[in-house]
Amino acid sequence: MMLASLDIDEDDTVECSVQLLGTFQVQHRGTAVTRFGGDKVRAMLAYLVVEADRPHAREAMAALFWPDLPTNGALRNLTQTLVRLREALGSCEPVVTTRRAVQWRPAAAEVDMATFIRLSASAEPDDLAHAAALYRGEFLAGFTLPDCETFEEWLLLTRERFQQQALGVLYTLAEHHLAAGHVVQAAEAARRQLELDPWREVAHRQLMRALAAAGDRGAAMAAYSRCCRVLRDDLDIEPDDETRILASRIEAGAARLVRWARGRACTHGGSSGRRRPASDRGGRRGRRQDPSGPGRCLGTVRTILGRRVVGAAGEH
Predict the structure, then answer these.
(1) Edge-to-edge strand list for the sheet holding 31-32
(2) Torsion of CA 240, 244, 245, 251, to 10 degrees
C-alpha cells in the first residue's frame, strides 16, 4: 500500500553534516558525533538518507532491521532506535514520523552523497572534479550488519551504484582533460578509475593516451603491459581490439617520429662533428640558435606523438 508523503519542514538552517561516501562520519555544529547507541542506529540513518524520496512503513523498517523478531518486538526496537537517532543528532530533527511511517528530513543535514549525486549530473568540469573529490571511498566503507540479510543486499547494491557513478564521473573528467591537453590531470583521473576497478579497459586506454600525449611512450607501453597482465592474471582474458590497436599506434607512431627527428637532425649544422671557421660562425654573442635544429626536433616528437595518439584514440 502506498503511503502518503509526510509533511516535511524545509528549514534552511543546517547544523549537521553526514558523510556516507567512505567511512561513516557525522558532525553536529562542527563536533564529531560518535555516540549512536549501536550500529543499527547508523545503518538506519544511512538507509533513510539514501531512500529519502519517500516515507517508509514502520512494519517494513522493523522487518528490515530485526528480521528474526516478532512484529511487536521489532516495532518496539524501531521506536527505541529512532529515539537514539534523534538524541545523537540533537537539534537537527532528522526524521519525520507518524504512527505508520518514517521519513528522513533532507533539510536536517548536509549529506555528501546528495551533493555527489547533484554534481555528477553536471556537464561542468569543475562540478565533476568536486564530485570526484567527494567520492572518498565506497559507500559506508567497512560497515556491515551480518544479522540483516536484506539490509546487506541493499548495502551491496548501493555501493555498486555509487561506484559506477563515480567511475562515470572520472571517465568524463579524463576525457575533458585529454581534449584540453591537461595530460597530468587526465592520467590522475584514469588512475583513480583503476583504483576502483582494475579491470576497466577504457581507463587503461585513457591512461595510455595521457602518457603518450605527454610524450612518454615508455610509460604508455608499460601501462599497456600492466593492463594485459591484470586481465590475464585475474580474468584469464586478453585486451580487446581497441586497446591493442591503441598500443600499436603508440609504438609505431613513436618509432616513425623518432626516425623522422633523427633525419631532421642530420640535415642541420653541427651534425658532422666539424667546426665551421670563425668567420662563418661570427662569434656566439648575439647569435641565435637555429630554431629548427635537433633540440626542436626532439621536442616536436613529443608534441606530435601526443596529438596523434590522442586524436587517433578519439576516433574509436
Answers:
(1) 31-32, 25-28, 16-19, 109-111
(2) 170
Nine-digit cell string for 34: 560518535
Q: Is 36 in a helix, a strand, or coil?
A: coil
Nearest CA to 109 out of 170, 49, 196 is that of 49
Q: What is the pTM of this model?
A: 0.77
First to last CA, the chain: 49
Q: What is the pLDDT along the chain (316 residues), one digit of tens a residue?
A: 445 555 445 555 678 999 999 999 999 888 999 989 899 999 999 999 999 999 999 999 999 999 999 999 999 999 999 999 999 988 788 899 999 999 999 888 999 999 999 999 999 999 999 999 999 999 999 999 999 999 999 999 999 999 999 999 999 999 999 999 999 999 999 999 999 999 999 999 999 999 999 999 999 999 999 999 999 999 999 999 999 999 999 998 765 645 554 565 555 444 333 333 444 444 434 433 433 344 444 444 444 445 545 554 554 4
Burial grade of 81 (CB within 10 A; 0-12, 13-18, 19 or more): buried
**Segments making up each domain of the chain, as ranges:** 16-111, 182-268+293-316
The Cα 52–Cα 63 span in angstroms is 18
- As a CATH number, domain 16-111 is 1.10.10.10
Q: Write phi, then psi, for 104 (nearest 5 degrees).
A: -70, 140
Distance of CA 108 to the CA centre of its chain: 27
Cell numbers at 43, concatenated: 545503518
Q: Which residues of 193-207 are buried (b: 16+ CB within 10 A; e: fewer)?
A: bbebeeebbbbbbbb
